[in-house]
């Protein structure tokens, strides 16, 4: 049997044997519990030719797996990778190049083509078909994901769902909060009905200035949002009038924990990648943001349980070897690089903070739908520590404390020029009022 034919035969056998369990909560990824939890690196926001990415999901998945990621969710807009879908090669700027690479890697017997009205089309492989090429118990896991792409008027409101089972259509609503709440509720209704672990997270709140801190803080059940997104047009840093995503995080944490009596929100870092053939500032590329989750096994259930407990950190470059969080102490250890310096800032809000805030007003004096301005008490830097070991002993008056690590190293191919490698821990919540 020739090598190409052998490879194709193996693929068919693996696919047929895995179809029945590929979409389950644990599926073929179930492994014996390890004696001790470990760190798993993954990206939860990625796009392919199933929506507005410019490459095939098999090629994208291989990139992540080859570079040490352990899990990946390809979250295309308002679609799951199932059923029959064809893409026209010429409809994408890099369509011809993408097809050439795809054929070179996977061969004529894997790539299905047809001519339609004089144009070449390629049939996309569903997740259930290509997943067995990559899933390995304890080594790599593909998650079924979707980006619910909704809006209020002209403002984009996008919510990712990790480990989704069934397609969720945008629910809409009469205002920004209602749009978010309706979609969040739909995720948890599916979770309750199916018993499959899954969770929603709000994507890039500053994309199109779609969501303010005051709107996000009201949403019940929303436990995650993107504090860092690698797309170049999502305004992680904000601008003169708009709060950056870290500032939004501190405002939301402070008011949810003290005023609204709601659970904390955790911060994710993601790629939101769309462009796979040209790497540059201004492109939405891979390898910019990720989460690192501490769990005993590489299964959807274990990863989601750990994330819902806040047992993970987010990064765009800095690697942590340990994070310790309890009611009295937040400590971390950085895997240092030669010639690179690190500064850890412990950030939080103390009881008795100044709660006053003011809306941002336009030239006519009208309040704008923009995150309010708050006092410096909200999200204050409580301590700074240089080096690869950093710890903060809680004094007892903190509402929450989180850590941000800033390195001296410029990020290679950052989303914006001058971006530095950083990492973010999840907050330690100590109490209210």
3D architecture notes:
The protein has 433 residues and is an alpha+beta fold. The chain has two domains: 35-85 and 124-429, TIM Barrel (Alpha-Beta Barrel), CATH 3.20.20.140; 86-123, no CATH class. It contains eight helices and 22 strands. It has helices at residues 3-18, 57-66, 95-106, 127-130, 176-194, 213-216, 245-260, 300-308; strands at 38-43, 71-74, 86-88, 113-116, 119-123, 141-152, 155-162, 199-202, 224-229, 266-270, 290-295, 312-315, 320-325, 329-334, 342-350, 357-358, 373-374, 380-386, 389-393, 398-410, 420-425, 428-429. Strands 1, 2, 6, 7, 8, 11, 12, 15, 18, 20, 21 and 22 form a twelve-stranded mixed β-sheet that branches. A three-stranded antiparallel β-sheet has the order 3-5-4, with no helix packed on it. Strands 13-14-19 form a three-stranded antiparallel β-sheet, with no helix packed on it. A hairpin with a 2-residue loop joins strand 4 and strand 5 (119-123). It is globular and about 70 Å long.
Please, how many helices? Answer: 8
* Domain tally: 2
Strand pairing plus helix content: what structural class?
Answer: alpha+beta
Please tell me the CATH architecture of the largest domain by its name: Alpha-Beta Barrel
Which spans have pLDDT < 50 for at least 5 consecutive residues?
A: 1-35
Distance between the termini: 73 Å
């Amino acid at each position: 049997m020739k090598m190409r034919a052998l490879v194709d035969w193996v693929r068919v056998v693996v696919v047929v044997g895995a179809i029945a369990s590929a979409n389950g909560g644990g599926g073929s990824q179930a492994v014996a519990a390890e004696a001790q939890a470990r760190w798993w690196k993954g990206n939860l926001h990625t796009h392919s030719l199933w929506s507005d990415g410019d490459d095939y999901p098999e090629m994208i998945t291989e990139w992540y797996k080859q570079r040490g990621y352990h899990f990946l969710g390809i979250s295309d807009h308002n679609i799951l990778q199932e059923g029959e879908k064809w893409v026209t090669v010429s409809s994408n700027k890099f369509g011809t190049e993408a097809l050439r690479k795809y054929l070179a890697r996977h061969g004529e017997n894997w790539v299905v083509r047809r001519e339609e009205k004089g144009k070449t089309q390629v049939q996309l492989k569903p997740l259930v078909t290509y997943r067995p090429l990559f899933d390995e118990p304890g080594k790599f896991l593909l998650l079924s994901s979707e980006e619910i792409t909704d809006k209020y008027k002209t403002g984009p409101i996008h919510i990712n769902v990790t480990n989704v089972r069934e397609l969720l259509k945008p629910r809409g609503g009469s205002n920004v909060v209602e749009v978010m709440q309706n979609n969040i509720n739909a995720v948890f209704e599916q979770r309750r009905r199916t018993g499959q672990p899954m969770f929603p997270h709000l994507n890039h709140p500053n994309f199109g200035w779609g969501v303010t801190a005051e709107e996000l803080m009201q949403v019940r059940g929303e436990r995650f949002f993107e504090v860092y997104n690698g797309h170049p047009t999502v305004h992680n840093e904000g601008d003169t009038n708009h709060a950056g995503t870290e500032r939004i995080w501190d405002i939301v944490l402070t008011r949810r924990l003290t005023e609204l009596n709601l659970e904390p929100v955790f911060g994710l870092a993601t790629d939101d990648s769309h462009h796979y053939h040209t790497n540059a500032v201004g492109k939405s590329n891979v390898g910019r943001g990720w989460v690192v989750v501490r769990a005993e096994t590489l299964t959807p259930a274990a990863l989601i349980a750990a994330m819902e407990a806040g047992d993970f950190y987010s990064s765009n470059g800095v690697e942590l070897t340990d994070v310790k969080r309890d009611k009295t102490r937040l400590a971390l250890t950085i895997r240092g690089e030669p010639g690179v310096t690190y500064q850890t800032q412990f950030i939080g809000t103390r009881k008795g903070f100044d709660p006053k805030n003011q809306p941002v007003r336009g030239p006519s004096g009208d309040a704008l739908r923009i995150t309010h301005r708050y006092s410096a008490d909200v999200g204050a830097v409580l301590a700074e520590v240089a080096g690869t070991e950093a710890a903060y002993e809680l004094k007892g008056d903190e509402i929450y404390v989180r850590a941000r690590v800033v390195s001296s190293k410029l990020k290679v191919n950052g989303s914006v020029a001058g971006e530095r490698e950083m990492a973010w821990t999840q907050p330690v919540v100590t109490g209210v009022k």
